[in-house]
């Protein structure tokens, strides 16, 4: 930290923040007597707060976003140069970075062909939901409009996205919700609903989706929306057999498969997209966070040509096209940043690093599990990992949320930021979450593990 932030009157900044900023996911009553945290600077894997305290960021900006790390001048310069040339034009016309980024992105997504630009993950998912509903009206008399979503998955913060959200505490107090969204069971083997393991459990969890389809009526179900690896619902990697069976079910009943890659996309799991681990062919893929590593706002709803063709037939109905606009989907900063972000991932071999460091960190978490009885399960893929805490390994009774928060709080006091499921799943906000930037080194991983080890010892003995 070079102290540049001291050039500003930081006390005035903090006072302005307390007086005027409404923070995300925050109860503000404590700020009446204490200061909110203000992050002032970032470099690589490190950030500094208003007191000059350095923190190792183990969650990539707090919400799985800064995939290539902080302080990337080449991304900032690419954005600056583009903004001077053309900062914005509505998405009804094209732009140079929009076209070039779309082409580059599609090269990484065989079987998909079209990119709809928008400005947030929630909005990208809304676009897919609207497409499904419009296809239902155009092709099925409005009947095949239902959208299935999975227990524990999260798809965004708007009312329609909450309607497709499998996290009750995030949904609480925001109903009534949009009709036509139907929940299917989760696929977390550690919390198995059936006395099965491995591939047998994976097949049972997938077959449970078919049971919901048959109950609702296949002629009423238009799409299935799933995360490739469940994120905020507890870092859940689907078991063997799950994804191929899900694909088979969707094809059997002509149901569009929508993969929400808002968290997993752009390298988080060690491939460009999480679904690519499983050999499936989605109809929609939505993405946001890591697309430009937070250097500019950008999100995308990517579709197959099959979906795209449904909106360009020769019908005389003037309402036949996709009547949608995302104002800030026309900003050129996003695709300019995204192109440079992809360049960095390729040039620095960050997918390979994610696999290597992810395997290393998973091993270290298993070693922590051997040491601490409160760790009931360790799971994850790439640099997207979780450790579920329990009061008793034999009964798997979940650790209470307050105690889990004490672990993350102690890590923060040590200067290490890790995450946790919180205020999402009644009784099951008990998973520590790790998603360091794709540039993470063994030393960074060791520091995350050491801090967790110390915190677990302090909180639980």
TrEMBL record:
Cofactor(s) needed by this chain: pyridoxal 5'-phosphate
Domain of life the protein comes from: Bacteria
Organism from which the protein derives: Pelagivirga sediminicola
Gene Ontology annotations for the cellular component aspect, listed alphabetically: cytosol
Pfam families in UniProt: Aminotran_3
Name of this protein: Aspartate aminotransferase family protein
Segment forming the signal sequence: none
Assigned keywords, A-Z: Aminotransferase, Pyridoxal phosphate, Transferase
Single annotated GO MF: transaminase activity
Family statement drawn from the similarity comment of this UniProt entry: Belongs to the class-III pyridoxal-phosphate-dependent aminotransferase family.
Transmembrane segment boundaries: none
